[in-house]
Amino acid sequence: MARALIPREMLSWALISVTLGAVEGGLLGVLVKTSYSGTTSPLLVNLAVAVVSGAPAFANLVSFSFASWARGRDKIKLLSRLMFFSACCVVLIAVAPRSLPGLWLLMLASVSARILWSATITLRSTVWRANFKRHVRARITGQMTTLSSLLIAASSALLGSLLDQQPMLARGLWLLTAISGFSAAWVYRNGRIRRHQRILKQEREVISRDGTSMLWQRFLTVLRNDIAFRHYMQAMFVFGAGNLMVTAPLIILLNEQFGLERLQQVLITTSLPLLLLAAAIPFWARLLDGEHIIRYRAKQSWGFVLAIGFFTLACILHMEWLLWLGGATMGVAYAGGVLGWNLGHNDFSSDHSSELYMGVHVTLTGLRGLIMPALGVLIYEALENLSPGWGRYSLLIPLALSTTGACWFVIMAAQQRRAEAASS
């Protein structure tokens, strides 16, 4: 049955991926920085860059609330509606004027689109867990992610090129990507989930037992009772904080200190990483299918450290070619990160608690996303105010955070191996 479900999943996620390309944080960050400078103060524009580039992460703050609300409800209908309203947000981005009110509209639409997509991801984890067994889940997810990343990369690259050459035509293309999202919603409305009624029954039993008003108590209960998952979340918080702090100041550096064209900025921050993500997915999928998420992260996390290291050196030494190397390396790291992010919680949860664990995971991601991009911009601004040009050192802080998190995963993996050896 799982094999029969794949074509509809692939088609719907392919269509919505075209829409996602239009709301990628890197693309919208470049759009804000290059199209809205002069409409308001430079600091506000840079903070707007932090908002739109960080939106994919901090929108996850609502995920836990949505996971609780969605328990016991038809997942297919909800997913179809979420795709539809995500596409509506892209329409607003397409028509936003190049003025201060337009900047606020663009930020509102981009954040709303990412909130809806965060809710989609939370529900999708339940669908994929139910439809695909553990030993093949990463490979099937990898196939879908590969196709998705290629389409997002193509969509964002095309939009980035039109920003330089045909701004009005770019607005039309944004509308076309919205139509793709509407099509995805139409396709997915007839999707299926294995054992759907049984999953819904289990969720409703949990609601009957615990009620629906104990949202944060369930959040805290998961972290309090599942020690291994709590330690994993702690390490992820430090590690992910560094990763999420990079993009916003990097976009500002590419514009202000390197003076790169819009297309080059979009390629480095969005399209190139997504293309390399597609190429690296099969490798990481095979590794994750055979590894517990902690041991997997102990290896995969160093890709992010290396990528941020390249970006940091590029900015400090003003070596443009290192930016491209950093973008490529980040794509390889993202490939492993996407799989681990979507599937890692399953090594701790059961079928009926998958949404709950994913909700905890993405909510903590949202907290990082709310703080870190803006903090990265403020650090950049503070260094520039101390001495013009010092902003290029701002990436040293996310590099330190990501390195600390990677070391934490290595320590946890060693502890896990020792515990398994002692129990055998």
If you had to describe this structure to a student in words, what would you say it looks like?
There is one protein chain. 84% of the residues lie in helices and 0% in strands. With 424 residues, the chain is mainly alpha-helical. The chain has one domain (2-423): MFS general substrate transporter like domains (Growth Hormone, Chain: A). The longest helix is centred in the last third of the chain and has 33 residues, at 354-386. It is globular, with a radius of gyration of 21 Å. The protein starts with a helix and ends with a helix.
Fraction of residues in H or I helices: over 70%
How large is the share of residues in beta strands? under 5%
Kindly report how far apart the N and C termini lie.
Answer: 36 Å
Any idea of the CATH topology? Growth Hormone, Chain: A
Major sheet description = none
CATH class wording: Mainly Alpha
Gross morphology is globular
Query: What is the ordering of alpha helices and beta strands?
Result: HHHHHHHHHHHHHHHH
Secondary structure: number of strands: 0
Ranges where pLDDT stays below 50 over 5 or more residues in a row are none
Query: How many helical stretches?
Result: 16
Based on the structure given, which CATH architecture is correct?
A: Up-down Bundle
Structural class: mainly alpha
